[in-house]
Amino acid sequence: MNKALLTVPLAALTSAVVLGQGTVRFSTYDPARGVNAPVYIAGMAAGSIGLKAQLMYVSGTGANTFYTPLFPITIFNRGHTAAAGYVMVPQDPLVVPNVPAGQQAHIVLRAFDGYSYETSIVRGESPPVQVNLGGQFADGRVVEPAVLSSLQGFHILGMPRHIRIYGLSVEGNDLRFEVLSAAPGVWTNCVVETSTGVGGWTALRTNALSTTQFTNTFTIPYTRSEHARFYRVRTP
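^ that's the sequence the OP posted. Answer follows.
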């Protein structure tokens, strides 16, 4: 039975895959098309604490509701301006598996801080929005990717009491850390540690944390010729 499937021409298989996929543009800010869906957490824009973002295709209802992840995952714009409430738009539109162009699909926006939404402590999602998918039709017509014109922004309530590195960059002879203190005033200091990955952790510097701001910036001397190192931040 499997041998019969292998006799199908490759071109035919390729066409079936292409024609079977609808597309959507992953943008949460496009005012000309009615898209304006910022995400906030504890009064701050999601990008100011380094949250990730992902679209999900929602199918089924009730107990039989299924969430299919769409890729790629992106991040929110970094910084402390209004733009940080919106995602960095991927270069290519996202493909909705097994849903043809022109069909309707329900899409949800998720924001989270961990490796995945399911394993994250900080997370939230939008209500589903219905879109008409773009892509290529069977007759060769190509329609622009769907836009999220009815997507609603949302607030993630509360924030766990933790600290973590959410930005790391090299500036001249310094290594620059952006450290998030999720509960200003709970801790007054943090310790930056390093490791070569084959031994224990060594403390580099103890830094004072702001008692009023969520984000803190520290620098330590850095030599570009050094071997690869790992860094972490912890409370004393």
